[in-house]
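1st attempt posting a full record on here, be nice pls
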Amino acid sequence: MAKIGRNDLCPCGSGKKYKHCCMANDAADARAKLAAATAAATAAHHDPHYCDDCNDKLDTAANAVFPLIDAKQFDAAEQAAHDVLARFPSVHDGYECLGRLHQAKGIGKLTGAEM
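the predicted structure (as tokens):
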């Protein structure tokens, strides 16, 4: 199907330009589909072996690490990341938290002299 231009006649048959007729509804439908796809992709990141409550606890625990990193409270952030790893060893979130922590601390970065 050819793309409908803003100034083309609306395909619904109203005789109005598309931008004055169905364009807003079509855009809203597209946004709703995108939101549903995003929600489905987010849900897919949860471990299927955990219940919804455990997945929520995992999200809460992992998301608590990042403000600590931003506040440069690296010791507390490292402890929180290790806690995520201990409580949820089968998912990658704890390792992701540790990776972000090490990135913020500058660990593992090569300087110009080391290259």
